[in-house]
Amino acid sequence: MIQVYKHITGHLEDNISLVTAEKGSWIHVVNPNADDLQLVSMVTEIPTDVLKTALDTEERSHVEIEDEYIFVVINIPILLEKDSYDTLPLGIFITEDFIITLCIEETEVMRTFTENKYPLFSTFKKTRFLFQILHRSASLFLRYLMQINRRTDDTESMLRHSMRNKDFFLLLELQKSLTYFTSALRSNGIVMERLMRMRRNTELYHLLKMYEEDEDLLEDVIIENKQAIEMVEMYSNILINMSDTFASIISNNLNIVMKFLASVTIILAVPTIIFSFWGINTPLPFSANPLGYIYVIIISLIFTFLAFILLWRKDLF
């Protein structure tokens, strides 16, 4: 899918054809096929192989600088399903005439711009638009991290009352999400630092015009990204410690149960031994006494009680 957007007199037009796209347009490409990539390459003069790079789900965040364009790849957060998060590469090309974004699927980060909900967003200001995308991505990371933290607290409350496998699998899923976020945030931070260093490069001025407001925005993005890194590290440590703690609790509970069962086994073994002894086919005490059966039961109860007292005093009950 290819969509072309352009701000005209303050209004975001979205019914523009790619072949008629003018300077200052934003070309938004989602899950393109070979024909779409060929058409984008023809209009923007960006090689098809380079365009395909942005569609690789394993592509790491980086910046490539060419004479005709700047290619930026960042990893943005996505919500796969409830309590399951991941990251996805987003390719951003800045040419002298266009800004092009490519992604394998539509994301919440870009939906903010396609629906024109981001303040002071303009397709003409390509550098600022790039930083606004970075800002939106960092803000979404922070929002998802808050959701993960709240879900962790809810899961901890549930585990305090009932330890179910489902809750432990949820902790594992949240831990995986934080691992993905950690990798993405660190690589995104490297990209932002490099973009900040490029602000004084006059050779790139025809592609990356950075004004004072743009520098301030990029600094805010870097701060938010660092904050997100600190939060994800803190939440990861909390999840790891929580998992270890509940694993220790489960092990301790298992030991308590096994200790109780072992004590019960010992208690039941005492009368079993006594009754087995009186069951052998030889003359025994009380064998000729009509009340011998009662005597054997009383003896069994006495020794069972003594065994119980001994185990109780050794804290095995």
TrEMBL record:
Pfam families in the record: CorA
Signal peptide coordinates: none
GO CC terms in record: membrane
Keywords recorded for this protein, A-Z: Membrane, Transmembrane, Transmembrane helix
Keyword field contains Transmembrane helix: yes
GO molecular function, one term: metal ion transmembrane transporter activity
Annotated localization: Membrane
Transmembrane annotation, as ranges: 260-280, 292-312
Assigned protein family: Belongs to the CorA metal ion transporter (MIT) (TC 1.A.35) family.
Protein name: CorA-like protein
Organism: Megasphaera hutchinsoni
